Amino acid sequence: MATDATPVTGGTYVDRRHRPPVASIPGASALTRAWSPSRAWIVVGSVALLGIVLRLLLVRGIWVDEAISIHQAHMSLSGMLHNLRATDNHPPLYFLILWGTVRVLGSGDLAVHIPTIIAGTLLIPAVYVTGQELFDRRTGVLAAVFTAFGPLLIWYSQEARPYAFLMLFATLALWAQMKVLRDGRLRYWVAYGALTIALIYTHYFSVIPIAIQQVAFAAVIWHRSKRGEPVKQLVTHYWVTWIAIAVAIAPLAAYAHQQFANDVLTGQGTGAPSAGATSTGVSQTGHPDIYALLANFVWALWGYHANSTMLAIGALWPLLMLLALALLGRGRSPESMLVLALAVVPPLVLMAIGFKDRFLFEVRYFSGAVPMLMLLAARTVVTSSARRLPVALVTVALLASFVAGIGDEQLAKSNPRDYDFRAALQTVHRNARSGDTLLYAPVYLNDVVAYYAPGIHSEIVGSHTPTLPKHGRVFLLASFLDQPGIASDVGGARYALQHSRMHLVHTDHLEKIYLWEYR
Amino acid sequence: MSVGERVRDQTTPASATATARGTKAPSESAGQIDPRLGRVHWPLPSMHTARRRSLLMALICLPLAAWYLSWLLEGKRIGNPVLFGLLVAAEAFNLFQAIGFWWTCSRQRLRGGRPLTGEPQAVDVLIPVYDEPVEIVEPTLAAACAMRGAEVTVWLLDDGGRPEMAVLAGRYGAEYLRRRTRIGAKAGNLNHALGKSSAPFVVVLDCDHVPHADFLERTLGHLEDSEVAFVQTPQYYANAAGSPICTAAAAQQNLFFGPIARGKDGLGAMICCGTNVVFRREALDQAGRFPEGSLTEDFLLSVRLQERGWKSTYISEVVASGLGPEDMASYVSQQQRWARGCLSAIPAVLRSRLPWRARIQYLLSATYFLSGWTLLLYMSLPVIRLLFGVQPLASITANQFLIHFTPYYLGALAAVALAGSGTYTFSAFALSACSFWIHVQATIGAVFRRAARFVVTPKHGELRRQPKAVAPPLAAVAVLAAAAAYGLARGHGPATLNNVAFAALHSTILLIGAAPAIRLRRSALLAPDAAAPTARRRHRPWPKPVWLAALGVVLLIPVLLGTVGTRALQIPASLNQRAYRSVSSFLKEYVSRDGRVIRRDQGGDTVSESQAYGMLLTVAMDNRARFDSIWGWTRAHLLEPNRLLATRWADGRAVSSPPAADADLDAAQALVLAGERFGRSSYRDQGVAIARAVLANETVRGDTRNTALILVAGPWAHSPAVLNPSYFSPRAYADLARADPDLRWRLLVSSSHAIVGRLIAHGGALPANWATLGAAPGTPGATTTTGTPGTVRPIGNPADPAAVTQPTSSFDAARVAVRYAASCNRGDRRLAADLWPMYRRNPGRDAYALDGAPASPDVHAASFVGAAAAAHAAGHRAAANRLLNRAQAQNDAHPSYYGAAWVALGRVMLTTAALGSCTS
Questions:
Q1: Which of A280, A516, B209, B210 can bridge A310 by disulfide, Cβ–Cβ 3.0-4.6 Å?
Q2: Residue from B790, B772, B642, B601 nearest B708 by CA
Q3: CB distance B509–A322 less than 8 Å?
Q4: Given a cut of 90, is residue B302 above it in pLDDT?
């Protein structure tokens, strides 16, 4: 930058003495010692292997939203599409994949997670090639390592929902854009178009990163034309690709419109059933605030944790002031700015939308930004020092924090996202005999109950007092009791049970799930 | 970057001169390569872009600053008044500097070099030296002799009286001057030379600043304007890459000689910086030449010249290459001189007859060296909070602070980054922060007029660690680390972690700033021989013991102020001033030394409710001793074997009277909170025991899904169920559920919400004092047990729910609004908000009919508090504050135990997080 001295031509003074080439510094990192492609791919391959092992080892039970998806996947293809159109608010691509998976592999815990585990694992090499294309091979490798161990990335690799695909397609779309801008060959335009279509068919909020990419296209075209470089071919290919994209997504318009209309009509809101678990993501006022922004940032990098842990981590916000200061005087490449925009703008847009519908401001809806954060983290680490030791130390520290995040997220029962319906319902399934009844609340546990306790007579505890069986035992399963309406439904049911001939014989409290057995 | 870069190729003048004379080039003869002879890289932005950008940033940052300060200055933010005052002063100072920076940058003027149009003029070039090595002086002297564009006479002004300097001057044909005395240091040396020379223009060069051959060609043209007194040019550190210190110092210089100097020039207030400057002799003579009593003779001279109507000019091109401080001791020495000189000049600036714009500009420059005080304060705040639990702000959440502070902070950083075109770096900031103690030291020196010595900034970097030069920042890091460790040993709550993070932030910045002095890194430039550092060491102004002691005292000042202020006022961190006053007034008026809360206006008896209020208020006060005494008295005199509290105590004994659920609930809540606040699990256990007794004895089963379990007024109120809605306390339920996870608390939350909702009918009625379950007698389905499903009926007489008595809503029922407004549940708060339209019409009445019509002409403080709570819940914070003030005034005029208690509780529950925040 400004203070760099450069050698005088033919002069006696060579300023390079004062700032020797990085490679000549003893112990310097290989900023200039580029990794060979084969070495890099060996590392990325190993990391991907480790990544898939992690994702397979940590498979969780089915969660409410997943159970809905599995239930839909059991329908006929037309029935599922109709159901999605009428009751859901997601585009159909992921559900089609799940539908096919259920047909081929069945609907066991592992089977339904296979597509997302594959997508989550493919994200590792995808991040590598994107990092390499944007910056350099070293950044790509480090970003791939971070991706393999990113707690949130692991979490959504294990959830039978579209988010792992959203992250994969968003990353690959960025890679394709860079290839298009730097290489321009037709194959990359095709790849870019296909990935953009896949993104839109995976999640509606992918329009935000897609829009950012269009701004980047416009900026590049403007700069090139300002510099007098030819842009005609670029512009032509751009418009042709977008016409193809428009044709491909046209059928989605009516579908999306109906979903939106249904959503408004029912007041359901995207993802409302599972939003009860996001207590630290939204302030007490019910609006997104800076603490919610911090919580989402922490979730994005370190995964989901107990509310008390989130409060403790959130209290460390002054350290972010250090980050802001550390950015003073640092160079900014257009590539970094693009990745930064893809990492920052989607959460900000959703934060703004969150004022309208507070449940929408949540990391999974902008999960496409998480790989971008990994790329930025890798870039920051790689450029943090010219020496190997500091880079290695920072890398190890960050990885250690990710591993700690994985441990807490996956193993701590206090994780507000971790509802072990599997254990509770398997207990019921094991102990239930013919004539027994399972009562449950809230109503949206119906698909989870159907998945884990098929064949047991079950009834929802809701606005009316349930009909109590004349014979057999009654199991009462309840969750989300921090919501007064549900607590009061369950309280009513318990009151009715206690005032009938039933006696409470057993209670199980599985963190956020209660199970009472009456006889 | 978006700015254009003008890179000037500079041939080596000394080499050229040496070649012309057939001698060896000085840089080569020294056996070293001198960076001052290299090419200059000095980016210059387009003037319009720079101005537009700065103006835009100013327009963005000003509202952000106003947004932050207007929030900060709200009365309820005052925590510890002393610390608050200091914080506001620091923020005001920083804002003054920031506004000055934005203003200066928005007036940038980019002035290039201008050659003389007439005949070449005679110019005296003065190069003062003292003890600098020959290899430093020689390139400067050689280059000065080789300057083009004028009839140059170079004067080597040797205050060191060294023969080798005379030889050097002779070698290059320069005049050599030495004095018998060294009076006036550099200024005296220059004045002495002015007396011996006579050219109409005078160039002053520090001996380490090598002028370019076109120095005079670029500057003298500006002096054709007869009103211009001097032309200042940038100080460019050619050795910026030589050491981390110099890199950081160069980044600081780039900001000053970049947008700031250009802005000062645009405002006609450029300061003379002591070197690389051309003076008009006539102006110098008029101003009385260089002031000899100042450490920054250049600064004071500028003031005097401009007072006499002379103009100053700054050209943005680099026409001389110099050396910056290469090690920490050199940097400290330089900063000490600048800080002391500029701070000493403040009175002169204030007394001067400068135009207001120039005066503000001079003040901005001089007062910059007070900024170390603000950093000292910012570092002290987490230490004080961690050690003593006091803080400057009250009634804030981190979210509120971040919303107001972050935009201002980021905007200010962005303004600096943009104005400096990215040249101002984090290391420059860290080095500046690491110099905080120099500013403190200089202020003390200036205030007490301690004698200061002109110390020449050393020109070579040392080859050893210099921990003494960073001893004060390292001491500060030690204090911050110790405070953080102490805080973490005491607890891991979010507030502690937040202050530990602040301590870590300051420590990291200081350590990064101090690292080059601790880490041994040899300068690649001008490495002197091994003996040189020892020889020069006596010139280094190491911090002397007296200064270290003074600094220690200064570091302690905010701590002592905070401690003394706190002890004097006993204000806990969590309370604001008004809440503190109300609480302390209640405790003073109604609580005896042995912990009995006396209803002085009601015959001097005591009730369980009053004890519970006292317990809650002492928790809010963070006053463990008072809490102990109140709970001790309560336990000894009111606690019954079934763990509930007897209602009344009079004449030395508990009067036979059944417990009241509100007192039991409040006492249990207070005990649980005290257990958490004071770290005593026995309190929590006792609170849980009372809470379980409440669940067992003071609840009845409802029979609908919304009223599965109901809190009744006491053990006496089961059949028929008698309810007092003002006993329902969502916050108590939540706190007790946290301590004793029992589903029944959730059921109480739900049933209480439903019952209050039905009683107030979505804002259509005020809550009755009493209610029962079931329809009115005679109604089909009426029952005498737990009531008709889903029916809640206001009653007038709890002793006889069946009697036909007109129910009312008195100041007792106003507690419904307070308790629900303080709830963490949005739905609960909405219930309280629903009451606002009713209370708003006639706030504060003793009693109302349920339709909101006043049932009494009298007013009561507790009723005003209820109205305030409803306003607060409805989002009318100003109205809420007004009503709380009216409650306070009412109680001051007509004191009552109940009014005082609810004024205090209202303030605590509505305006502070002293009884816990909703996120804790």
A1: A280
A2: B790
A3: yes
A4: yes
